[in-house]
Amino acid sequence: MRCPNCNSRDIGKIGAQNYYCWNCFIEMSILNNELTVHQIESDGSLSSLNDLFTEEELKLQ
User: Fold this and answer.
1) Which residues, 6+ apart, have CB-to-CB distance to 50 below 8 Å?
2) Largest Cα–Cα distance in the chain?
């Protein structure tokens, strides 16, 4: 698995379907064979970054 944001393979699993990129510090979740990408804010909330990627980039292969 590679990060759709930075293309790094330094991905950690933080939940059943949740992953974290240790290179660019974003959180990813898998839902229906597609990634949802979030930035973790300073208060711990998540902001969606899905609008920065095409549907093709978010599809799992």
Assistant:
1) 36, 37, 58
2) 33
- Measuring CA to CA, how many Å separate 55 from each of 15, 18, 37, 51? 23, 19, 12, 9
Distance CA 53, CA 61 (A): 15
Q: What is the pLDDT of residues 30-40, one digit of tens each?
A: 988 899 999 99
pLDDT at 1 over 90: no
Give the containing element (helix H, strand E) for 28. strand 26-31
Task: Give, in degrees to the nearest 5, the angle at Cα 1 between 7 and 16.
Answer: 125
